[in-house]
Amino acid sequence: MKITVLSHNLSTNAAMRAYRVALAARQFADVTLLGPVEESRGLWPALPAEPWIASVTERRLPKFAKSFLELIAAADGDVLIAVKPQLASFGVALVAAERRGAPVVLDMDDLDVALAPREEWEANPEMADPSRPSSAIYVSLLTRAAGAASAITVSSTALRRRFGGTLLPHGSSIEMFNPAAVDRDDARAELGFEGPIVLFPGTPRAHKGLETLARAVASIPGARLAVTCRPDKDLAGPEWRNFPLIRIPLVPYDSMPRLLAAADVVAIPQSDSEPAAYQMPMKIYDAMAMGRPIVASSVSDLPLVLHGCGRVVPPDDVPALATVISELLSDRDAAFALGQRARARSLQSYSTERVAETLEGVVESVTSRPRRPERREVSS
Questions:
Q1: Which one of 57, 230, 278, 356 has the largest count of C-beta atoms within 10 Å of its C-beta?
Q2: Is 215 exposed, middle or buried (0-12, 13-18, 19+ CB in 10 A)?
Q3: Are residues 46 and 64 in the same domain?
Q4: What is the CATH number of the domain that holds 58?
């Protein structure tokens, strides 16, 4: 079986959900990960260079019509998995499926309409600019068209309550993210880490509680906060200068195990906001696989996933977050035991193989239905 996984933009961090879905699908099928790439940015820095990743040039409309047709031609899988209700993923999949009769699986890892709410369109015209393939207008329309998919997969129970479908966790490669394979002291020396290090391993975004985390770490004597950042973009403003930050360039995916191993505590807070309520942070699964002590916010499925193997605090609560981080930094034995339980939970429930079993069931359900015949041109 051949599966095409469509990402709407391989130059952004959204490509990483598509990559993980593709990794899971590769456990049981021949897979191509396909999407547009911005010429000025190239592939997302953390995205591995794999021979099974294919791309076209990202363009604005009307030139995007060429990219759209190229994506349709390349989306030749027996099953099409579109990650996000975007024009270059779900839109392409629907048109390609209409031509060839292939089933479409829509994968949702965010409530994308909440990331560009309609009430902000007038104040920020770029957000809803129809010349942009990722315009909020197309996202809104394609979100409403979710029912056109043969099946839906989602990354959180909040998304499942809203759209139905099958829960498909991000998961993690337990072979790559193996604490026994990394020399922690060597990794810390390589990164220049000294003293207590709290790591935020995701991409900084407004709904991810970075200010709350920075204030919490600043209140702990000697502790520093390491954050993966895009150069000259993330956390670069003057308001961040008084925090004990270490700004780390985005690392390739295969370097993430060393970064996680080098940290004393992994912190993944989320704010109390609509986007955060629907999202499950991807890096939580990598940190669990690496056996790290984790503290996160009681948002989305984080309390469920970390039950018994991580610490959870209320969102936007600086004192509570600081207290838990301090406890984990001061009691290394308890922190180590917490990490061991997280690794065990990862092996049991969140490995790539476990995710693949769920995804294979979804694929089997859509391929067992009668396929529509391919449309053929009628000669005059």
A1: 278
A2: middle
A3: yes
A4: 3.40.50.2000
Residue range of the domain that includes 35: 2-171+353-367
Peptide bond into 62 cis (omega under 30): yes
Which pTM was predicted?
0.92
Domain shared by 119 and 225, yes or no: no
What per-residue string of b and e applies to 97-125 under the rule 16 or more CB within 10 Å gives b? beebebbbbbbbbbbbbebbeeeebeeee
C-alpha to C-alpha distance for 73 and 367, rounded to whole angstroms: 21
Residues 162 and 197 in one domain: no
Give me 316's structure tokens: 């936007």
- Give the CA distances from residue 316 to residues 185, 276, 283, 298, 322, in Å, rounded to whole numbers and listed in that order: 32, 12, 19, 10, 11
Instruction: For residue 183, give every residue at least 6 positions away whose Cβ sits within 8 Å of its Cβ, in sequence order, or none.
Output: none
pLDDT in tens, 147-199: 999 999 999 999 999 999 999 999 999 999 999 999 999 999 999 999 999 99
**DSSP-based three-state secondary structure for 157:** helix
Q: Which residue has the tokens 């900084």?
A: 204
